[in-house]
Every structure is written in C-alpha cells, then in structure tokens.
Write a structure and sequence with these properties.
By secondary structure, the chain is of the alpha+beta class. The protein is built from 13 helices and 14 strands. Strands 2-4-5-6-3-10-13-12-11-9 form a ten-stranded antiparallel sheet. It has a two-stranded parallel ribbon with strand order 1-7. The longest helix has 23 residues, at 229-251.
Length: 481
C-alpha cells in the first residue's frame, strides 16, 4: 500500500468520529437509569425510603394476584402478637441533610422562578420524612398515613442558599393508633457544631395514624416513654394539642350554630351589603373589598404513580400539600395582584386517600382577611365602621386561603372529599373579602376562629415563629413560594 494512502488512513483514525444514530439511541436510553429522586422532586434518600417497588412490578403483582390493595378486606394483616412495648423518642428520630449549597442540580429541584426556595418541594420532603419517622416507631407491619398537619410555621427567613437539615421524632403517642411527629428545618451546622435558635427556619407538627393494611381500620401502636425534662415538655405539648383538637371537633360549625357575637357579625355584614345595593344610599362597596365568590380558583389533574406512597397505589400526602400550597399561592396572588408571602399552614386535615389513577379536584377560596396594623378583620365593616376608618394605606393584610379537595375515579362514578388545607399569606396591600351566601359566611367564620386561635397562641407564647403582624414584610422578600 502506498505510503500516502497509509498516511491518510492514519489521519482519519485520529479525527473525532461523529456519533451515528445507534450511538445516540444508546445515550438516550441511559436517561432511564437516572436516580429515582429526580422523578418526583423529593430528596433521594427520602424517596428511596418511600418508594421501594418499581410501578410496573407493583402493577403486575396486582394483576397476577387479582387483589385490589386499595379495597378493604375482612382478614386482618397485622400480627396479633406484635410487640407494643413503649419506645423512647430517640428510637424514632431521623435526620436528613439536603446539600443544596453543594449540588447545583439538586438545587434545581428546590428553586422557583425567582431563585428562591420552592416551599412546595420542602413540604413534600417534610411529609416524606414524617412517614420515615412514623415507621421507625411502628415497624413495617402496619400502614401509616398522614391524618393532619397541625401547623407549619416560618420561624426565620432563609436569606441565603445553604444546606438544609430536616430532623424530627415522635413526640406524642399513648398506645392508640395516632401519634404526633414534630419536625424542624434548619441550616445544616458545621461539623461538630449544634443548631442555634436563629438557624431554625421552619417548624411543623404532623398527626399520623396507623391502620391494618387489609381492613384499613386503626390499630394500636407503641406508646412513647419520656425520660428527660425536654421530652416531658414535648409530650405534654402534644397531649395538650390532642385534647384541644378533640374539644374543637365538638364545637365546630357542623356541630353547633354560630355564637351570639358571630351571629351579630353576620347580620351586620348582611345589612352592609343591602346598603351597597340600595340606590337611595350613597354607600358603595369600596374598591379594596371583594366578594368571596369572585376569589375562587380551581384545578384538576390525574394522579400519576410517580407520586405514590410506599404502598404503591395511593398518592402520598406530601404531593397533596405541594399541589394545594401552589394553588393557594396563585389564589392569593390573583386576589391581591401582588406577590404573597407564606406565613403558615394552619391546622389541615386529610379525610380520604387519593388512589393512583384517580382525578383530584382542588378549589381555592379567599376565606378571611385581616389587617396587620391593629389585628382588625373584615368585621370592621360588619360592625358598622366606615370603610378606611381603621385602615392605613399600604399597611398590608394577612390573607387566609382555604383549599377544598375531592377525588373521583377516572369514570367519575364516585366522589369523596380528601381534605381541607388552610394557608395564611401576607400581602403588601390593603384588601378585604366579604361573604354573601350562608355557606360563605360559614367559611368566613371558620377561618376567623382559626385566625383568632393562632393569634391567641402567639400572644400566649405557645407557638414559636414570626410575629405575623410585624415581620411579614421582611419575610415576604425572602421566602415567597
């Protein structure tokens, strides 16, 4: 072979060769090998603890066995001789560090459009962590579900991107089926250092309930034993919260009529609306007041298996928190025409599970507004105070958004309520909501009671967190979505 030909062959061998179509296909297939945490926005370690079986395997097993795990059975699956000896709080303790400052691609899952932490994703992690803590306490022989979120509060604004430490434990359990789990989100401390109070960004409490996997009925769990003074304090707080919730259930608006003061408020607001529509009365609805019926936003979506819980055929509670929170955020923004600041998730309940493949319907409503200047609410108008008399332009308003959720099967043959979620935001505008129908007045009263309870708890020092009336504006420029 001539030397020139050999030279050309050598040169071609050194040139980078373009990938052919088959090589491109091989690269594309590698995307399916990406870690599971990238599919649902939950931190990898928490996802691996929640989802243990690929969806296709769970689906095939269901078809082969011919049993629907979502339906109740008469045969209990929980062993009758389980060990229910008391456990310490430390037995359930779990800690996870999310390295947001170290991994830009992980951080990608946690940022919103403004480069701030996306709280909905944190809520998913919190619910996933509460499940890990619950199973540390109960073991694997029961099904544990989220029954309620008692409160999520922003303690200190996050002003920088940093690694986050999520930690918590069971703080109240008496041997019944339910347990209270307390969790905090804090800046991850340096090696060997401890978390300081100013490093705690968020605190929350979840109520979890253990069920028999087959019968879906509540089953007993291990009680918590307290050993230190701090554990005694936590247990006493959980017990108090448990008793308060039981008492409130008996005095709710579904059980009792509004009291005299509330009835007077409703009547006064109704009279004010008559004045607004009276052609012989010069009083008209002010521009900063909006009827409740005009504030609603709705959404619907099919529930996909990527957001399932560890039992494969139900959606896990964290996804419902994220979805409802982001709809509440949009509702508050549409109502105020400003960017709202999240202050707290107030007591919210999960009523029925959401099956994979079902359709979830969410409805957001502005339920209540309250001026932060003097703690005055829409009742200014209802009590006959002239509009604007107790309001300061640009003072800001706390806005409470109520999310009602329901689920239907794909054929829309049956409908069940799945829960109610209550979010409070701060907006830098003077704005208020006014109910018109009896149903809207009940929504308004329920939200008003909730706001008064939270305010009373803060005044009594029972709830740690921001003073919503004084720090809302600063927080609004730090954590917003």
């Amino acid at each position: 072979m001539p030397s020139r030909t050999l030279f050309l062959i050598a040169i071609r061998a050194l040139r980078p060769q373009p990938r052919n179509c088959f090589q491109c296909l091989r690269v594309t297939r590698q995307l399916h090998l990406s870690p599971r945490w990238q599919t649902d926005g939950v931190f990898k370690e928490l996802t691996e603890m929640r989802v243990r079986t690929p969806w296709i395997e769970a689906l095939r097993k269901k078809e082969e066995e011919g049993i629907d795990p979502t339906q109740r059975s008469n045969t209990p699956a929980t062993p009758p001789n389980r060990d229910l000896a008391p456990k310490s709080m430390s037995d359930s303790y779990h800690r996870v560090v999310i390295p947001l400052a170290q991994d830009p691609w992980l951080l990608d899952n946690y940022l919103n459009a403004n480069g701030q932490i996306r709280l909905g994703t944190i809520f998913m992690d919190l619910d996933a962590l509460s499940g890990v803590i619950a199973y540390n306490h109960t073991g694997e022989s029961v099904t544990t579900v989220t029954a309620a979120v008692d409160r999520i509060t922003i303690n200190h604004p996050l002003k920088e991107i940093c690694d986050l430490e999520l930690s918590g434990q069971v703080t109240f359990a008496t041997g019944r089926s339910s347990m209270e789990i307390s969790i905090q989100v804090a800046k991850a401390p340096e090696r060997g250092a401890s978390i300081q109070n100013e490093d705690v960004l968020m605190t929350c409490a979840f109520t979890m309930v253990s069920l028999d996997p087959n019968t879906k009925k509540p089953v007993a769990i291990c009680p918590v034993k307290v050993e230190t003074d701090e554990e005694k304090r936590l247990f006493a707080a959980g017990e108090k919260n448990y008793n308060i919730k039981k008492a409130r259930a008996k005095t709710g608006l579904r059980k009792q009529t509004p009291n005299d003061e509330e009835s007077d408020l409703i009547h006064a607001m109704w009279l004010r609306q008559l004045d607004y529509h009276d052609p012989n009365n010069p009083l008209r609805k002010p521009p900063h007041t909006h009827y409740m019926s005009s504030t609603t936003l709705s959404s619907s979506q099919i529930m996909q298996p990527q957001y399932r819980n560890r039992h494969n055929f139900m959606i896990f509670g964290g996804y419902l928190l994220k979805t409802s929170f982001e709809l509440a955020f949009c509702c508050a923004a549409a109502f105020s025409h400003s960017r709202p600041t999240f202050l707290s998730l107030d007591p919210s309940t999960f009523e029925n599970p959401v099956p994979v493949g079902s359709v979830l319907y969410l409805k957001a409503t502005v339920a209540y507004t309250e001026s932060a200047v003097d703690g005055a609410s829409d009742a200014h108008q209802s009590a006959g105070v002239e509009d604007g008399e107790k309001r300061t332009e640009g003072s800001g308003t706390r806005v409470q958004i109520r999310i009602d959720s329901k689920v239907r099967d794909i054929e829309h043959g049956s409908t069940k309520p799945t829960g109610q979620f209550n979010y409070t935001f701060w907006v830098d505008r003077d704005i208020s909501v006014m109910p018109q129908t009896y149903e809207e007045f009940m929504i308004w009263l329920d939200a008003r009671r909730r706001a008064e309870r939270v305010r009373g708890s803060i005044d009594a020092g029972r709830v740690e967190g921001v003073d919503e009336g004084k720090k809302g504006k600063d927080d609004g420029r730090r954590i917003t979505e």
